[in-house]
Amino acid sequence: MLDPILLWSGLVNGLLQGAIYALVALGLTLIYGVLHIINFAHGSLLMLAMYGVFLLFSQFGIDPYAALPIMVVGMFVLGYGLQRGLISRASHGRDENILLVTLGISIVIENLALFFFQGDTRTIDVPYAFDSLEVFGVFIAIPRLIAFAAALLIAGLLWLMIQRSDVGRAIRAVAKEKQGARLVGINVEHIYAVSYGVGIACLGAAACLLMPTYLVYPTVGHAFVLIAFTVVVLGGMGSFPGALLGGLLIGLCESFGGLFLGESFGQIGIFLVFIVVLLFRPSGLLGSRV
């Protein structure tokens, strides 16, 4: 039988990691919930945001946490511009075209990153990177604890925006009935771009929370986006609470899978739980649309 300290450690580490997965998946589920598309550029845009945090620190000395408002605004503008100026124009309203356009954006971004940064890994050296806090015998890295709290806060603020603000009401109206929303005067193209921009802004926040403890390289987004897609489907396509719950569950599965099966087989537990849940809940844990 495993030591209770190891089990407690697995629980804590799983929840901390799961919050980051949930933050990445929240943007993806918002984009799906409104635009009804799978954004293949999500991982590449996360990588781009992480390089942005790296450059702000290395060139201007801006701490990753201080860079959070800069990156959130910058990634929102980038996402809005991509949707309004490229994706909507190139897709001509066809879903299959949107998938190909986002895939093309992903390929372009990754190759630009390879051109400018090569395949080398980059990291930043912050003084608090190895600081930790002991909680009931388990040492928790301070940056991961900050990331957990910030991810929950951002998820809550995003939910409040969608539920209580005028923009959020417009987003929900467009998600449920595009033509009806247009008839009552909502600028559907603008709301599409805003939704995509907010989804990409979540990646800017995630990058700031990841960089104190993670490496960045041109293909770093692949691992995160695979997990994010799993989280979105597991929690329920288009469901914000489902994305948060799914992210935490995936983090726990990865942590305990690594604990019982070894680190190299840890992710097997993720997909076993994924298959079991979908066998009994095909719509996901909290399957509903925005």
From TrEMBL:
<dbReference type="InterPro" id="IPR001851">
    <property type="entry name" value="ABC_transp_permease"/>
</dbReference>
<feature type="transmembrane region" description="Helical">
    <location>
        <begin position="191"/>
        <end position="217"/>
    </location>
</feature>
<feature type="transmembrane region" description="Helical">
    <location>
        <begin position="45"/>
        <end position="62"/>
    </location>
</feature>
<keyword id="KW-1133">Transmembrane helix</keyword>
<feature type="transmembrane region" description="Helical">
    <location>
        <begin position="98"/>
        <end position="117"/>
    </location>
</feature>
<keyword id="KW-0472">Membrane</keyword>
<keyword id="KW-0812">Transmembrane</keyword>
<keyword id="KW-1003">Cell membrane</keyword>
<feature type="transmembrane region" description="Helical">
    <location>
        <begin position="137"/>
        <end position="162"/>
    </location>
</feature>
<feature type="transmembrane region" description="Helical">
    <location>
        <begin position="20"/>
        <end position="38"/>
    </location>
</feature>
<comment type="similarity">
    <text>Belongs to the binding-protein-dependent transport system permease family. LivHM subfamily.</text>
</comment>
<dbReference type="GO" id="GO:0005886">
    <property type="term" value="C:plasma membrane"/>
</dbReference>
<dbReference type="InterPro" id="IPR052157">
    <property type="entry name" value="BCAA_transport_permease"/>
</dbReference>
<keyword id="KW-0029">Amino-acid transport</keyword>
<dbReference type="GO" id="GO:0006865">
    <property type="term" value="P:amino acid transport"/>
</dbReference>
<keyword id="KW-0813">Transport</keyword>
<dbReference type="Pfam" id="PF02653">
    <property type="entry name" value="BPD_transp_2"/>
</dbReference>
<dbReference type="GO" id="GO:0022857">
    <property type="term" value="F:transmembrane transporter activity"/>
</dbReference>
<feature type="transmembrane region" description="Helical">
    <location>
        <begin position="223"/>
        <end position="252"/>
    </location>
</feature>
<feature type="transmembrane region" description="Helical">
    <location>
        <begin position="259"/>
        <end position="280"/>
    </location>
</feature>
<protein>
    <submittedName>
        <fullName>Branched-chain amino acid ABC transporter permease</fullName>
    </submittedName>
</protein>
<feature type="transmembrane region" description="Helical">
    <location>
        <begin position="68"/>
        <end position="86"/>
    </location>
</feature>
